[in-house]
Amino acid sequence: MNNIQLDQQGRLKHFLGIEGLERTLLIDILNTAASFLSIDAKAVKKAPILRGKTIVNLFFEPSTRTRTTFELAAKRLSADVLNFNVDTSSASKGETIIDMLHNLEAMHCDMFVVRHNACGAAHFMAQHVSPHIHIINAGDGEHEHPTQAMLDMYTIRQYKGECAPLRVAIVGDILHSRVARSDIHALRTLGASEVRVVGPKTLIPKGVEALGVKVFNNLKSGLHEVDVIIMLRLQRERMQGALLPSAHEYFQYYGLTEEVLKVAHPDAIVMHPGPINRGVEIDSTVADGERSVILPQVSNGIAVRMAVMAMILGVVIPEQKEVH
Ligand code: CP
Predict the structure, then answer these.
(1) How confident is the model over 122-150, as a mean pLDDT?
(2) The pTM is what?
(3) CA 264 – ligand 1 centroid, Å
(4) Per-domain residue ranges for the chain?
(5) pLDDT tens digits, residue range 277-308?
(6) Ligand 1 center from residue 74 Cα (angstroms)
(7) pLDDT-based confidence at 319, cuts 50/70/90?
């Protein structure tokens, strides 16, 4: 398969989306992240693996977790990191993204971590940069958020073991969620036994069953005996028209409370990519409760992003054997 993300030897050159990537590559990322977790736990959180490399965070949309954990991951691998401020750049004077990239390339940068509200933005950039430049997609519109999916898979493996025997429910605004799309591809590729999407009809994309998921419009039915619950935020910034009555009513029907959680498997974990909206999609008692692994997800994001950057820049040859 001709995948722009891979070089001729099948190694990661860019990381743009989970769709089309082989299971072995996803497992390599998880195993490499596991080896980096020890650096993250040390008193001196540094390894000289990316010394001399320059990584630019290019965020055209707001971010707390992704931008910060990419920066920490790059710094822990000893790379130089530039947080490019798009708002005060020459983009506001009409400079195109491609001209901007070529100018940053002329400053001898090695990798761009890109978040943009347009689907395909990172892919477009990967097609236009010089061959030695690498692009990581940190979220493109409603399309994909591949490092979020990998940190979600890492967290699931950490708490539940390998993906295969698990039932996973993704709940909420599936229609506008790049996290849902990337998670579905990752869960299906890693062989989860059942992937469900749960939400009101207006927030479930038509034809989503083709991705190999089961659709539920009733929350309790959708969560019945699941092992993993991934809650999503309502992406109001991407909604056009009235797709929902009110936040209050949404919480009544689709909010995750302690009461609703009882229908899931007794050991089910609760995940959320953040930012969470308490009292809209999730009750505080659940978000802060013992089943919640929302903050460990954030911590795991550092090791996973270290792994992706190191694998792309060719400094880690991951072991092929699977570690669970
Ligand atoms: N999960 C996620 O993408 O969070 P941020 O928008 O804060 O980066």
Answers:
(1) 97
(2) 0.93
(3) 26
(4) 2-144+299-312, 146-293
(5) 999 999 999 999 999 999 999 999 999 999 99
(6) 17
(7) low
Q: Which of 34-38, 76-80, 115-119, 268-272 has the lowest mean pLDDT?
A: 34-38
Q: Tell me the mean pLDDT in the region 34-39.
A: 86
Q: Which of 12-26, 126-140, 198-212, 234-248 has the lowest mean pLDDT?
A: 234-248
pLDDT at 1 over 50: no
Among protein residues, the one whose CA lies closest to atom 1 of ligand 1 = 273
Q: Which residues have C-beta atoms less than 6 Å from ligand 1?
A: 63-66, 139, 145, 148, 273-275
Which tokens belong to 141?
């519109």
Q: Which atom of ligand 1 is nearest to the CA of 64?
A: 7
Q: How many residues appear in the chain?
A: 324
Per CATH, domain 146-293 is 3.40.50.1370: yes
Atom 6 of ligand 1: nearest residue by CA position: 63
List of residues 6+ apart from 95 with CB closer than 8 A: 89
Look up the CATH superfamily of 2-144+299-312: Aspartate/ornithine carbamoyltransferase (3.40.50.1370)
Distance 124 CA to ligand 1 centre (A): 21
